[in-house]
Amino acid sequence: MPCFQKMLECVAQALAEKGRAALTGAASFADVLPDIARTTFLYSAEALNDIEQRRAFQEALNSPAEKTREIVRTIGGTLPILQSAPFRPQVMSYLELLPLCIRRTLHRPSDPEGDSIPEKLQITRPEDWLLYLPPQLLTLELGEVVAGVDNWELNDLVGMGRGTEVWQGWDDSLPEMSPTLLKFPVDPQLQEALLNRLDIFEFLLSIEPFTGMVPIRGVYYESTPPCIETEFVPGYDVGGMIRDWAWRYDRPRPDYAIRLIRRLAEIVGGLHRHDPVIVHRDLKPTNVLIHPTGQGRFTVWVSDIGWGQISAEHTLAHAHATPKRGDIVRQTMRGGNTSIYASPQMRKGEPPDPRDDVYSLGMIWYQLLERDATALPPIGTDWAYRYREHGLTDNQVRLLSSCLSPKASSRPADGVALMERINSMSTPEPETQVEARSFVLKGSTSYKPLVPMASSKQRTESVLGDDDGRSLGMNGLPHMLRNSVGMNLVLIPPGTFRMGSPEEEPGHQPHEGPVHTVTITLPFYMSMTPVTQAQYEQVMGKNPSHFNRWHAGGPDHPVEQVKWDEALTLCTRLSSRPEERELGFIYRLPTEAEWEYVCRAGTTTAFAFGAMLIGQQARYMGSDSSQFQRVGGAGGKTAPVGSYMGNPFGLLDMHGNVLEWCADWYAANYYENSPITDPPGPRHGKMKVVRGGSWSQFPSECRSATRMGQPPDKATNTIGFRVVLMLPDPSRVG
Length: 734
Prior knowledge:
Layout: H1 2-18, H2 20-23, H3 29-47, H4 50-62, H5 65-78, H6 88-105, E1 153-161, E2 164-170, E3 180-185, H7 188-196, H8 198-205, E4 216-220, E5 227-231, E6 236-237, H9 238-248, H10 254-272, E7 288-294, E8 297-302, H11 307-317, H12 325-334, H13 338-341, H14 344-347, H15 354-370, H16 385-388, H17 394-403, H18 415-423, H19 456-461, E9 480-482, E10 488-492, E11 495-499, E12 516-520, E13 524-527, H20 533-540, H21 564-576, H22 578-582, E14 587-588, H23 592-600, H24 628-635, E15 659-665, E16 688-691, E17 707-710, E18 719-720, E19 724-725
Parallel strand pairs: 15-18
Antiparallel strand pairs: 1-2, 2-3, 3-5, 4-5, 6-7, 7-8, 9-10, 10-13, 11-12, 13-19, 14-19, 15-16, 16-17
């Protein structure tokens, strides 16, 4: 197994270099795991090509435990950095966990046992390794019988969570009860939280089990560590299902998603209609289990009743402490980050309410549509357009949006109410059915929205956002267009926003203030992504990019090494194409105010995604300027456009990837006297504004308010651009 051994050597080297503090107990693994992942990525990319890396994963899945131990012993005795290292035993123990973690991550519908690697599995970013690396060293051992936990022998590691270990237990004297599932809180704070809330389990053990809820068998509160015993449900969780859908399907599956949510609503509804009411409070993909029963059928189970409420309260109570980025990113990628699925009322510490669970179900539903467990709650309803052509109806959009409403009163009252609403949609209602046709612009069939459009009456009914004031098909125009060179353009509504950043925002620079109110008075279209190399070459007849197809890039990467004048020339030539002239389409660069307005998309935080930026949201350099050189090799190039999640307006790559030219001249003090409506920028200057940050910059330099000036004749591999389409004459649109 030469490839698997090389993989283990890369992990061992990275662990010895970056994980010493955790291995010696001076820090938690959550503190160092991102660095371990990043360094593993660098070493493995050098040691293994793509084919060999896939082979290494397959060999890891095929490796018996004894064979893995043999390889690990060899590495421990030959890898120079481990010679005489006091933490060598810890490194070897960690390496033995890797195949188990890989297998558990790959449990999925197409392979419930996790014996094979998906066809589309690739390690393309350092963060990808966080899915497979063990999050910590084990506290318990295989084969151990924990004192005070009856006679259960730990015979298989099922998983490791945030401060927990989950084992399969076996008792030869109780074959009819074996295997069982044993969850051990190994974190002292979690142990204390459990012991302080034993009343929850006393109540749950006193009532009849609920259909679809994994039954609790007992709680061992005097053992060290304490333990919760439940039925063992073989299969995979919805986190694995989401990853599998992304690997297997080339389109969203709204039909599959709504069937699963209906079943979950029915299960949780049983809790909600119990007297007294029971609220789960920690519904998330990792707590929803799928048990295959043969012939393509499966049953759905919800786990962690009781424990979910305790762990969620603990997680949210410590959410304001210094975040452990390794924990956050890993749990987010797996579909286990409680904070994403917690309702606003939960985050405020309000009492349990069934509508907390309805919010969580709405979030799971949305991630199933996205096929992305890192997806954050959408804002407004514009996100729904890309799913309508795949079968998502207006009624379903309305219901999903109501589940995710910040106001509890706007959500279905409980799981049963949600299930009944879904049942009522089994026969689509004619008045809200989207027509099965494409909306086209008059005079050309080259311009089509990305999804079918509804009739004019249906447009008004499809506006589900109560607060953002955006409407579907504003002024009779389609929400999205695709032009003659394949650019997707998004309709941006007029609006008012606060431009700049406050002094207390991390990364704030003086020229980002003062914060001031700006109104964009007219709607316009903006390209969904930066201009790609293929699009630029189609218009300009050349590709100046450094990261081209021969240098770690390609046609779908953003064009870069473009001067400001060249970006402007593309706009002029694109406007002159016959297909564009026919419709009176005129392209230009965005003003700086338009750019920030679109980037923020109604948000007021440092990033469109919140107060911080993580690797699943943008291509950037790293999180710490002291690591510039080390991190640079990890993400040191552009990413294909659209590789990361969109902002609330649906635009992609507004943070990171490449800086973007704006139309304005740059002046550090411009905000002091900026017009309040449609600011055009200074009349003169020596530098032009660039916005958004790039692959070579840190998160603080990719904020919504970050602004820089660059000489217009300077072309670098960090600067690209996107275009604005001035609003067409409505009389020419049909």
